[in-house]
Amino acid sequence: MTQGVQFLAPEPIHLTDNESPAENSPQRSLHFKQITVGDCTIVNGQRSKFSVWQIQLVLSPRSNTGNSSPHIQLYKRYSDFVVFRESLLGSLPPDLRKSVPELPPRVSWYDSWRYQEANFNSSWLARRRAGLEFFLNQVLLNDKLLAKAGTCIRAFLEN
């Protein structure tokens, strides 16, 4: 007994933007409430292992009526932070560049021969996590940096 499967086309999706144009404009600044760099995940790549850091961003509520704050969760490699910092410094005027902190150090040159072991040491990873969190908090909670480098910051968060 064979029965045919009837194909039903999906219903179209209708999206509605209920936000006012002022909230959606590129000039609207980002407002972060809390930035946390969480645990890292060790990924086995084709050539070597690397760590990916979980970043949790809590945004300030858009209106006073709601109690919940929007959350964004993303994952970045240390190399993403390096590229972001270089891009950030390039997009800022000289007087604001000193506001951008250094990133936690790379694996030291004398440990590079045993990179896999050094890069995944739990105490070293904990120091790196704290350094990345400090970096993001200093950048994303600084209104002057957000105003001058909003495009660069959005690119880091969206890619």
TrEMBL record:
- Give the InterPro entries listed for this entry: PX_dom, PX_dom_sf, Ypt35_PX
Q: Identify its membrane topology class.
A: Peripheral membrane protein
Identify a single GO molecular function assigned to this protein: phosphatidylinositol-3-phosphate binding
Question: What are the protein's UniProt keywords?
Answer: Endosome, Membrane, Vacuole
Transmembrane domains' residue ranges: none
List residues of the PX domain: 31-159
Q: Where in the cell is it found?
A: Endosome membrane; Vacuole membrane
Cellular-component GO terms for this entry: endosome membrane; vacuolar membrane
Feature: compositional bias, Polar residues: 18-27
Stretches for region Disordered: 1-27
Q: Which residues form a coiled coil?
A: none
What the protein does comes down to: Recruits the lipid transfer protein VPS13 to endosomal and vacuolar membranes.
* Membership in a protein family: Belongs to the YPT35 family.
State the name under which the record lists this protein: Endosomal/vacuolar adapter protein YPT35
